[in-house]
Structures are given as structure tokens and as C-alpha cells.
């Protein structure tokens, strides 16, 4: 028996969610903000790109065939982050997360030995996050996907303490995947909204979790950061220096910021073998998981090949290829 190859960063598109929110108060404004953040050139490319990938995003048979081509045995499938809809009121938000959970579970049920799923929680309504997490787990999902912040709230907000406590108690995975960068129109050309925005948002969100003491209070949390955790793991030395040099920086967490990297998980999607090696060095080979961002253009069509290009020791290669995720998801050997 061999350890399965596990891709923890793969998405499903759920058109029924967009049908649910279409025309509701706040939806048009949210779309307009997204358009301003990305800029017209990016939107002109992204529209056809997504349309070309709809079969892989919606049809389990197409997904499985692509997985076979990539040499991936298991995917952890999360809703497209475009489905967060953190602008929605409480009633709509509950409908969104229930529909997302149930539709993702149904998609994964087409091949339960190869597809595991994640649900959504409405971060804009902290009173709903624990019921939403429980609903996802009731559908047989492995946890939930969240963005880097909600309007007016960072992940360090005390209102989210019940979410962290419940996720720790249940062993649920929390997949941190940003959607939208608050640098706004500064990144509206050359697709900077993604290439700079996503790793920035990852770094900010993880820093809030570290410096606020969330990881001290909830050491058993299973947080998986997309995009290799963004800029933070390879620039954590600046955080360590601040923690040593300034009382305001060290007030919230008990240990050096870099020590918390080994309490988090990171996907391998960094697009550079040198950065992947640095991520493994910073976080530990047992804390990095294979990720492809399937099937979007900012992902990797050959995640195993990209991992192999990093030149890791063989034991570390296989840990990242699948052993770490198999343990996290309690998967049986292939």
C-alpha cells in the first residue's frame, strides 16, 4: 500500500449560489467593488478563463479525469471563493452556507473515496459561524473555507473565538483562502490584485492569528493557508525582530512569531522551487501539503511535478505529496 497523492487546494463552482444572490441588495455593490479591485483588463481575461474551466469546476467526471492525468488520488474540494458573499444579510448568509455545504457534499459524493469537501461560514455574521461549521460537518465535510477578513473584522476579532474553539474541539479543517485585497485600485493593473493581493492578504490574516494569541489559546487548530501562506513564511524574520524589539508587538502572543509556523499548515502553491524549499525549511516538512488551485489559471497543472522540482529529500517529498494530508484527513493508504 502507498500513501495517496492528495491535493488540498481545489475548487468547485456552484452556480446555484449565484442564482440565489442575484439581484439582492448589496450584490451589485459587491460586484462593482470586485471589478474596481481587479480592473477591466483582468476581468476581460478572467471571464473566458472561467468559462473554459466550467466543466472541470462542475462535473465530477471531468474533475476525476483531470486528477488521473495529474497523478492526484484525492482532492480536498472547496467552493470558489467568489461564493463567500460576505456582504449578505443574516438570512441570505444562512441560505448561502447551507446551499454551499450541501452542493459541495453532493459533488464529492460522486466519488467519496477520491473527493473530500469543505463548506463555508459567513464571517460577516459571527453569531452564525459555529452553526455554519456544525452544518458543514453534518454534511460529512472535513471543515470550512474562510477568507482573510470580513468587512470591518480581522481574524483576530474576539467575536471569532467561538469559531476557533469549535473547530479545535471538532478537529475541523479551516482553509484560509483570501478573496479580494483591501489595497483596492492600487492593484487594478497587470493582475496585481491576485499576484500581489493574495499573498499580502494571506500574510496579514496569518499575522493577526499569530500576534493576537489565537494559536496560543487554540493550539489544536487545523488551519491550512493557501498560496504557501503568502509572504509571511519567507519574511517571518521581520516579525520575530519586532516581537523582540517592541512591547506592543509582543503583547499578544507568548512566543516568537516564527514558532507558530509549525502550528499551521501551508499548501505548496508558491510557483517557485526556491520559495517552496524555504517554506519547508520555515514551517517543517510535516506542515506543507500539496496544492494546485485546480483548475484555475493561477494554479498548477502539474502539482506533483512542481513539488519534485523543489529537490526536497525523498522523505520530505512524499510527506508533502500526500502523507501529511492523508494524516490530516484520516485517509486510508491507496
UniProtKB/TrEMBL annotation:
Lyase among keywords: yes
Sorted keywords for this record are: Lyase
Output this protein's name. Amidohydrolase
A biological process from GO: secondary metabolic process
Q: Which InterPro entries did the record assign?
A: ACMSD (IPR032465), Amidohydro-rel (IPR006680), Metal_Hydrolase (IPR032466)
Question: Which Gene3D superfamilies does this entry report, sorted A to Z?
Answer: Metal-dependent hydrolases
Q: Give the source's domain of life in one word.
A: Bacteria
Instruction: State the GO CC annotations.
Output: cytoplasm
The major lineage groups are: Bacteria, Bacillati, Actinomycetota, Actinomycetes, Kitasatosporales
Amidohydrolase-related domain: residues covered: 6-330
Pfam families according to UniProt: Amidohydro_2 (PF04909)
What GO terms are given for molecular function? carboxy-lyase activity; hydrolase activity
Amino acid at each position: 500500500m502507498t500513501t495517496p497523492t492528495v491535493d488540498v487546494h481545489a475548487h468547485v463552482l456552484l452556480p446555484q449560489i449565484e442564482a440565489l444572490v442575484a439581484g439582492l441588495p448589496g450584490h451589485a455593490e459587491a460586484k462593482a467593488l470586485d471589478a474596481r479591485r481587479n480592473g477591466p483588463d483582468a476581468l476581460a481575461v478572467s471571464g473566458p478563463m472561467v468559462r473554459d474551466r466550467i466543466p472541470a469546476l462542475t462535473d465530477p467526471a471531468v474533475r476525476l479525469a483531470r486528477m488521473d492525468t495529474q497523478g492526484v488520488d484525492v482532492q480536498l474540494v472547496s467552493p470558489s471563493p467568489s461564493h463567500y458573499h460576505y456582504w449578505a444579510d443574516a438570512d441570505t448568509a444562512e441560505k448561502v452556507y447551507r446551499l454551499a455545504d450541501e452542493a459541495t457534499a453532493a459533488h464529492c459524493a460522486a466519488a467519496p473515496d477520491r473527493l473530500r469537501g469543505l463548506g463555508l461560514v459567513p464571517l460577516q455574521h459571527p453569531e452564525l459561524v459555529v452553526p455554519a461549521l456544525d452544518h458543514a460537518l453534518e454534511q460529512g465535510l472535513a471543515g470550512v473555507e474562510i477568507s482573510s477578513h470580513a468587512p470591518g473584522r480581522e481574524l483576530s476579532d474576539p467575536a471569532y473565538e467561538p469559531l476557533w474553539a469549535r473547530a479545535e474541539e471538532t478537529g475541523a479543517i479551516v482553509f484560509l483562502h483570501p478573496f479580494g485585497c483591501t489595497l483596492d485600485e492600487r492593484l487594478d493593473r497587470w493582475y496585481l490584485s491576485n499576484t500581489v493581493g493574495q499573498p499580502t492578504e494571506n500574510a496579514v490574516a496569518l499575522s493577526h492569528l499569530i500576534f493576537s494569541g489565537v494559536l496560543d489559546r487554540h493550539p489544536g487548530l487545523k488551519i491550512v493557508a493557501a498560496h504557501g501562506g503568502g509572504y509571511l513564511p519567507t519574511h517571518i524574520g521581520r516579525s520575530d525582530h519586532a516581537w523582540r524589539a517592541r512591547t506592543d508587538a509582543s503583547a499578544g502572543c507568548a512566543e516568537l512569531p516564527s514558532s507558530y509556523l509549525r502550528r499551521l499548515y501551508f499548501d505548496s502553491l508558491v510557483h517557485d522551487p526556491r520559495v517552496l524549499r524555504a517554506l519547508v525549511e520555515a514551517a517543517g516538512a510535516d506542515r506543507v501539503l500539496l496544492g494546485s488551485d485546480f483548475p484555475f489559471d493561477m494554479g498548477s497543472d502539474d502539482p506533483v511535478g512542481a513539488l519534485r522540482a523543489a529537490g526536497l529529500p525523498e522523505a520530505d517529498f512524499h510527506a508533502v505529496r500526500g502523507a501529511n494530508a492523508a494524516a490530516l484527513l484520516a485517509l486510508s493508504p491507496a
